[in-house]
Amino acid sequence: MAENDDTNVTGVFRSYMTPAGYTQRAKADAGRCDLHVTPAADSIIGHCEYYYRPLHCEFRDKVEKLPSFNEIVDWARSFNPWSDSTVTKELLGKRDRLIRPQCTDSDWSRHSNFMMRHIGCGHKPPSYYLSYGYYYCSNYGAKLNPRLSEAGKHWLARARFLLQKNMETGLHQNMIGDGIQMASGIDGNGSFSMSDVKQYQLELDDDTFKSFAFNTHPLAYLDAGLADLPWTDLLKITGQPSIQEWEDGRTWEQAVESGAVVLPQKAGDLVNSASDAVNGALQRLMAK
Ligand SMILES: [Zn+2]
Q1: Arithmetic mean of pLDDT over the chain
Q2: Domain ranges of the chain
Q3: E strands, the chain, in order
């Protein structure tokens, strides 16, 4: 993988002097490796497209086959975003716009912004943008949302906003120095610190980026009010019954009646069960 420690150099161009009668074209390598992550436009934070715009045919083809989430995760790690020449041409045509701060172009995403800053240098966008970011956000969120109460729907929208806000905060911290620290302003909602992330390097290592993103998840889910949600919403987030079965409205009532979902009997049970339900929902949301 290419390295670039000098952040003021965005590309290298070599030229050669040749005799006037020499007709063979001189070789030139033009590339970009711009490590400066520019901030997202406020208007896109809170939307799944913030992570990735489904522009590539290969992505759409993959999603149409209704893969499991694990298949999407595996596929995203090996996906080469440069192989689609139509998308590449379109993005390159607006490169200057896509790397500007607060870009509101319809093709902007964290994924396309990365592509336009790393051309021909060997760096690949974090696979998180495609899988946990875009696919999980749009797929899981779309299935979950209509099943939730009004409070649950509000929580989902707020959590999505905070997930992306936290990502922006982490990326910004990585532009100004080594290490990333984040803490909830609410007692008990946690904090994290990653001292080994070097300045400008966060987006460049797939595993480090995924660890960073997952560290931000509980802060976003809890700060959005997960623990205050009704019991029924928590169980739906936990996936009891499974999310596919929610398509059939009867499943939920059947699950309660059959005892697959045990509702609390006493006040004391309610406290324990409520914290179990919050933990269960959090674990479901944090599943890797
Ligand atoms: Zn690069």
Answers
A1: 84
A2: 41-147, 149-231
A3: 32-33, 118-119, 180-183, 191-194
